[in-house]
Amino acid sequence: MLYALICTDKPGALQTRLDTRDDHIAFLKGLGAGLKAAGPFLDDDGNMTGSLVVIEAANRNEALAIAEEDPYARVGLFESVEIRPWNWVVKNPEV
Predict the structure, then answer these.
(1) What residues contact 2, with CB distance under 8 A and at least 6 apart?
(2) Among 31, 33, 67, 26, which residue's Cα sits nearest to residue 50?
(3) Biggest distance spanned by C-alpha atoms of the chain
(4) Minimal CA–CA distance to 76: which of 5, 3, 28, 8?
(5) pLDDT tens digits for 68-88?
(6) CA separation for the pair 7, 81 (Å, rounded)
(7) Which of 41, 42, 75, 92 is found 20 to 30 A from 48 (Cα to Cα)?
(8) DSSP secondary-structure letter at 13?
């Protein structure tokens, strides 16, 4: 099943995001085929303010475990992380 990880950064945490970005990108690449899509949310000035990560996981607990291993989560970047089952209907390259 696919899960959308909807992550919101803590206010004023842009430098933490920038300092950890290389580790975060490496972590995502390490998920291999389990990573379906990922990218940052932006504010009106183009600054990163959060993340959307879509992963494949057996269940919510596995999705949560993956989310907790993200270097961004480990350094306390996120104010909140919402984990929601997601059905990729339109433009899914695997269908």
Answers:
(1) 36, 54, 55, 56, 57, 85, 86, 87, 88
(2) 67
(3) 40
(4) 8
(5) 999 999 999 999 999 999 999
(6) 4
(7) 92
(8) -
- Cα→Cα distances 49→1, 2, 23, 43, 83, Å: 26, 23, 17, 6, 17
Structure tokens at 69: 């291993």
Q: Measuring CA to CA, which residue among 70, 63, 65, 66 is closest to residue 84?
A: 63
How many CB atoms are closer than 10 A to CB 43? 11
| Average pLDDT score, the chain | 97
Q: Residue 90 has which token pair?
A: 């339109």
DSSP state letters, 24-75: HHHHHHHTGGGEEEEEEEE-TTS-EEEEEEEEE-SSHHHHHHHHHHSHHHHT
- The residues that bridge with 37 in the sheet, in sequence order, are 54
Q: In which residue are the tokens 């085929």 written?
A: 33
